[in-house]
Amino acid sequence: MTFHIRAGDVEHGGSASAQIKNELMKAGVDELTARRAGIVAFEGEMNLIVYSADGGTLSVEVERDAILIEVHDTGPGIEDIDLAMTPGYSTAPEWATDLGFGAGMGLVNMQANSDTFEIESKLGEGTTIRCRVDRWASGRTSREEGGS
Amino acid sequence: MKLTEIIDRLSLDVFTPVTDAETEVSGGYVGDLLSSVLASAMPGNLWITIQHHANVVAVAQVTGLAAVLIVEGKRPDDAMRDQAKSSGVVLLGSTENAFEVAGRLYDLLVAKR
Fold first, then answer.
1. Would the pTM count as exceeding 0.90?
2. What is the pLDDT of residues A27-83, one digit of tens each?
3. At what angle do helices B54-63 and A31-51 cross, to 10 degrees?
């Protein structure tokens, strides 16, 4: 499923991600995995709303062993990805911080809730983030985690 | 402890109805930064916050929280209330501040267990 997210549309912020979590659970994805995917989607969705120039897309695919989430925009792009990934670093405008966004934890949360996390960005061209959330209930992942 | 019992014991306002009377509260989380809640609140927690806008509802839903408790007498706007109703998220209120209400919740859930 693909959602088109508009820049600045804070009023609907998070509604796509809430729907994604619901749809995943309806599709039989376990709650823990749906929650992690929902958190990844929420942070991606808010990044599109707060930072993108013209909005972007939030796409989710359900595979047998994993949920794949892709967040894509066409600008402005991130100048220094390492800096943007630093916990606490944020360029959020004041209207966003007043609402409780812009804690500098969005990308960090996306990575923390993903099993693989890739980010590509180019100034003037845009940013693409691809996250893979392994399905806990697939069995494969729970063995890898050693039942911790 | 059941959410309905907490509402009763702490005399909380109920802005959107408790859809499941069996909802259990696993603990509490206090915070106004949405990413912190996503990172650290646990499923079934009661989230205590001063934030009162529609994005809070999505955070509660994604995180799987038992309810949102809005403090210091703030009230949900119409957009927040509508979204909470349609998605089954319970919104509660208190005139106390986060410190006071968290202390009383801690007494109920942890200290006297």
1. yes
2. 999 999 999 999 999 999 999 999 999 999 999 999 999 999 999 999 999 999 999
3. 150
Domain count, chain A: 1
- A 31-50 → B contacts, CB under 8 A: 31, 35, 38-39, 41-43, 46
CATH of residue A57's domain is 3.30.565.10
Stretch among A51-55, A137-141, B54-58, B91-95 having the lowest mean pLDDT: A137-141
Helix locations, chain B, DSSP H: 3-9, 34-40, 54-63, 78-87, 98-106
Nearest by CB to B61, which of A18, A46, A100?
A: A18
Q: Domain span at residue A100? A: 2-144
| All structural domains of chain B | 3-111 (3.40.1390.20)
ipTM of the complex: 0.92
- B38, B63, B71, B85: best to mutate for the A interface, most A CBs within 10 A: B38
Angstroms from A8 CA to nearest CA on chain B: 13
Please indicate whether, in this complex, the C-beta atoms of A100 and B34 are within 8 angstroms of each other: yes
